[in-house]
Amino acid sequence: MKKNIYLPLRMLIVTAFTAAHSFNAGAQDRLISTFNADRPILPSSQYTPAEQYQADVWIYDSGMRYNDQYYNKVWGEPDADAEGRMWYEPGYELTDGERSWQRATSPFSTDEYYKDKKSFRWIQAEIMGDIYMRRTFTVDRTVPGTVFLSAGHDDAPAEWYINGVKVHSSADGWDNDEYILLTDEQKALIKTDGSENVLAVHVHQNWGGAFADCGLYEADMTAATDYLTTVASGEWDCRYYFLNYNSDIAVAEAGEWASLQEDEQDWIQGVGPFSNDANMFFINKWASQVRPMLVRRHFSLTAADIEKIKAGRLVLSCSYDENPKVYLNGTLIWSATGWNDNDYAEHALTDTQKELLREGDNVLAVSLTQGEGGGHIDYGLSLISEYIPTGIDAVTVGKNVPSDADNRVYSLSGTYLGTSTDGLKKGIYIVGGKKKVTGKQ
């Protein structure tokens, strides 16, 4: 590669980073959770409107139209019961008083109809107030994956509790579509032995329309092996170089700068991602209005890794500004024009592109042009595959669980399939809490 296209480097920087970082990344495994409205554990009005639900509700209607001095003022909450239990706790005895609990059917909205279902209109539009809801439910099966809480609200403050523990809150605003992924600790609050659970909600109303909702949904799960991580996992190691002009990129390409054979002695060793914006990917500063840049990231593969990649889906993810060209071991595999702000473009490598991989050291490199305005780069490389739980618990027999529970059949993703394998295609299923090869051809 012609060295006259490079800017002078401070070898002090190279030396300092060499001692602090390892520049050949190892694989990291993780799970990806995606919300799926077709997998309700407990339906919500927003995402499963056809399945209306009942809840015990307690309403504080202030009778007053909105006034700025009362913005987000919570007007009241239900009293503790005779045993001192709060409204969101299991075993709470519904209290009477000036305002009493009542049984009502979803959706809970100021609209006459919400998603084609007649609403329980708990308050008038423009009137300030609060609604408190309690839903009881049972789960008599293991949920092997992660769980999303559907947390629609209009307005806030709003809070959601599972079995007496707060799992989510919103301090301001409204979002009927809101959902959040429960942590492992929060998911563990849900009892799966057939005994009663309580999902409790408070939503405040300031002005305009009002909406209160809750539900639980099993996530779609996929497994990812990250050979190169993005900023979601923190800073990443790399070698990089600044060029003088955009035209120098073509000169660099002629010199095979992206290949494994490139002499990296004069490259800066450091960390990414890179940005000129303190609010976006700002791990390492790049004066993108002045200089184009080149980035090289190394990763190592075993023979077993390569075999898995051949059978799976290897995905490049890239957030860029601007005009990236991405190379795998010196061969161009993807490019784009312009920029995509803080979004990520994804490119699934073709079988031909996967053939570029080699056992041992590999390099994924990117060039970016100088441009006006913002400038940044974050990219990664991951193998996406089916999630197969390694340890699904046995079905727990508790009260309200049918006597045939020990014969329940689940797919490897945790979907309940009934109590018989008759009619199922031959494959691996969870039967009585154990993996079995069963079904018909």
Task: Give a quick rundown of the structure.
The protein is 8% helix and 40% strand.
Folded structure, characterized:
With 441 residues, the chain is mainly β. It has helices spanning 11-20, 184-187, 247-254, 303-311, 351-354, and strands spanning 24-25, 28-34, 40-42, 54-65, 102-105, 108-109, 113-114, 117-118, 127-138, 147-150, 153-154, 158-162, 165-170, 174-175, 179-181, 196-205, 211-212, 215-218, 220-228, 236-242, 268-272, 274-275, 284-285, 293-301, 313-321, 325-328, 331-335, 345-348, 360-368, 376-386, 409-410, 416-418, 427-431, 434-438. Strands 1, 20, 21, 24, 26, 27 and 29 form a seven-stranded mixed sheet that branches. Strands 2, 19, 22, 23, 25, 28 and 30 form a seven-stranded mixed sheet that branches. Strands 5-4-9-16-12-13 form a six-stranded antiparallel sheet, with no helix packed on it. The longest helix has 10 residues, at 11-20. The termini are far apart. Mean pLDDT is 85; it is low at 1-23 and 390-406. It comes from Leyella lascolaii. InterPro entries: Galactose-bd-like_sf. Residues 1-27 form the signal peptide. Keywords: Signal.
